[in-house]
Automatic annotation (TrEMBL):
Source species of the chain: Gandjariella thermophila
Protein name: Iron transporter
Location within or outside the cell: Membrane
Residues passing through the membrane, by range: 6-28, 35-59, 71-90, 110-127, 147-168, 180-200, 245-264
UniProt entry tagged with the keyword Cell inner membrane: no
Keywords: Membrane, Transmembrane, Transmembrane helix
Domain of life (superkingdom): Bacteria
Cleaved signal peptide residues: none
Family: Belongs to the oxidase-dependent Fe transporter (OFeT) (TC 9.A.10.1) family.
Pfam families in the cross-refs: FTR1
């Protein structure tokens, strides 16, 4: 699970770090450094909330019966897929305009007052944090309850994201963010498909969905999960050697629908209508 969680940590971490760097740069360049503590207060609150949500989810699941735990984990996995799907499409749509939008919102918040600045920073970073917390929990569930590999992947990805965002802020490196988010978004489609399939499998084990023993294929003899290549596939795509029909349909259906939509050329916004100059 290390590689898939590293990708999630890198993607979510870079989004959050870019948001923070845009806000900080705006305040520094407009000589409003006095508002920096307010932004950092909002960012800190968002991080603490995200950690708290992840802890609550993990603690709650640990105190449930097996079937209830599987049902809870399966539901959380589906919610995580919804979050990640929305995130990759949102960033694809706003990658070129996010800086302008954030500067505009922060400028409005500064005019309103300190509380508005804290709240704006909290909301801007909190979205990525909550998505990461839910996805981290679903990764822990699919890893069999062990938190070491998922946590290590997330932390490494977030650390790389912070360093990359700092280098971008300092102007030391240049990255085509639109291309970066397109490539990572396409990879995340396959990661999310694996999480979705595993979530449906959890619901089958919980007895919520039927067909637990109706397999679409069993390749454990050819591609065992404990082999190095099986471990690699499981770590990136949540590969399962014994895949149920519902799992396979969920995985294939998600990729078949979401990937073409994500890679489809974006429509350019229609030009604004010219105001009429005809007098009454």
């Amino acid at each position: 699970m290390l590689l898939s969680n590293l990708l999630i940590g890198l993607r979510e971490g870079l989004e959050a770090a870019l948001v923070v760097s845009i806000l900080v740069a705006f305040l520094v360049r407009t000589e409003r450094r006095a508002a920096l503590p307010l932004v950092w207060a909002g960012v800190t609150a968002a991080v603490l909330l995200s950690v708290g949500v992840g802890a609550v989810l993990t603690f709650t699941a640990a105190n449930l019966s097996f079937r209830a735990q599987e049902g809870f984990g399966g539901s959380a996995s589906i919610v995580a897929v919804v979050f990640v799907t929305g995130m990759i499409f949102w960033m694809r749509r706003t990658a070129r305009t996010i800086a302008t939008e954030l500067r505009g919102k922060l400028s409005e918040a500064l005019n309103i007052g300190p509380v508005a600045v804290v709240l704006m920073a909290f909301l801007a970073v909190g979205r990525e944090g909550l998505e990461t917390a839910v996805f981290f929990f679903s990764s822990v569930q699919s890893a069999g309850g062990g938190t070491t590999a998922p946590l290590a992947g997330f932390l490494v990805g977030i650390a790389i994201a912070v360093v990359l965002a700092w280098l971008l802020y300092r102007g030391a490196v240049r990255v085509n963010l639109t291309r970066f988010f397109t490539v990572t978004g396409a990879l995340l489609v396959f990661v999310a498909a694996g999480v979705l399939g595993y979530g449906f499998h959890d619901l089958q084990e919980a007895g919520v969905l039927p067909g637990l023993h109706t397999l679409a294929f069993d390749v454990s003899g050819v591609l065992p999960e404990d082999s190095w290549y099986g471990t690699l596939l499981k770590g990136i795509f949540n590969y399962s050697a014994q895949t149920t029909v519902i799992q396979a349909v969920a995985w294939a259906g998600y990729v078949a629908i979401v990937l073409p939509l994500f890679l489809a050329p974006q429509r350019k916004p229609a030009a604004a209508a010219q105001p009429s100059t005809t007098s009454a």
